[in-house]
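FW: tagging you since you asked about this chain on Friday. Here's the raw sequence from the shared folder, copied in full. Didn't touch anything.
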Amino acid sequence: MFEQRGRNRQNTAQIPAKTSVSATPQECAVTAVTAGVNAAHPDQVLSETLTREGDILSIANNQYDLSKYEEVSIIGGGNAAGRITQYLTTIVDDHLTGGIVITDDPVDADPVNVVTGTHPLPSRSNITAAEQMRSYACDCGANTLSLVVITGGGSALLSAPAENIDKSALRRVTQELIQCGAPIDRINAVRKHISTIKGGQLARALTPAQTVGLIFSDVTSGNPSVVASGPLSPDSTTYADALITLREYDVNTPESVRMHLQRGANGDIDETPSELSSSTFDSPTTIVLADGMTALDAAANACSNLGYEPLILSSSIRGEAREAAKTHVAIAEEVQRNRTPIDPPAAILAGGETTVTVTGDGVGGPNQEFALAAALELPSNTALCAIDTDGFDGPTDAAGATVTTATVNDNEASAARAALKANDAYSFLDDNAALMLSTEGATGTNVNDLRVLTILTEDT
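HL: got it, structure written out here
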């Protein structure tokens, strides 16, 4: 699934003699992230969590009698929405009446209309399709079972802006938010309040239909209200919170966006539905089918099979990418020096969503910055593979990178630091054959970032 662009200077550690290890640190790291992404693929997840016997559809621990509904529809959006929808159509085919989903990885899923959108920035296609989907949702009655597919990437793909906010303003504020370094929950506080779908508003549109949210989570908390900005979930944030985020992170805000949020803060526009809006959330059931731990568990098993003792550090690593990388390097040093928190051969695994505060004009993504910052300080006989599970790290064709101590030699350290300062990790890593690319482009899933740091002893 993943391949490294070029191979020079990467394979520095050898498999030690008299050990159960059967792969180099680099080989183990790449094998592990591949196993993690495969485990989180919709086909794998849905085959384990969704079954049908006669007219009874079972989703995790929930059952639905398809014969009770006049209509069964599939709507939603996100990076993996097309693949999930395609699988669902094979299960509920004879009861399925239609629907619409928006994804940047389109597949054929008749009779559901799968619309190709853009990510991470919204486009006219996203907006038009999202507005059509909302209209479709409003037409669903009490005798409709609506299966709502929600995955990472849905915040951009489900872009139905509030009145008086046009495409250019929506795109501009989205780009500013992505680059400002704010955590995802603060970003989503803004997104929810400039949308007619996010922040529980899709649930409101679907009322009184029976709604089942099928969620592939790409957020550190696993909270459905954060995934795709929570179209089916109560919103605890307010217009005032959105304005505070824009102010605190010095976001260059289009006037139409600022005025809309201010009108909301003044009480001139209804708030997004909260937990107090009980009628809105009487019908929806949200089920998280896969998240970062899905990938981490599979990656850990792969490491164990190759002779590396795995330790899952966290599925919720966040903060500035390059700073989080230094913490991971420190753990590798501790493993080698003091055999703590685990003995080598070891694999330290982590997921989550680190951020990048963009101040330069280079190209890259958080996993690439993470990898390059780590490469500057990695001890010998280690390797780090850091990827975005959807196959695209930031606005690049790379999923991330795999690095060792050989990625940055002594003569290149200053150039590597300059690349980080310019937010141009992609160029440096590409020149040094460290970028990881998905052989399939979009992987078909999105459960956030996945990082595997493999460690042998110092004297291997």
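FW: The mean pLDDT is 93.
HL: agreed, and The radius of gyration is 23 Å.
FW: great, closing this out.
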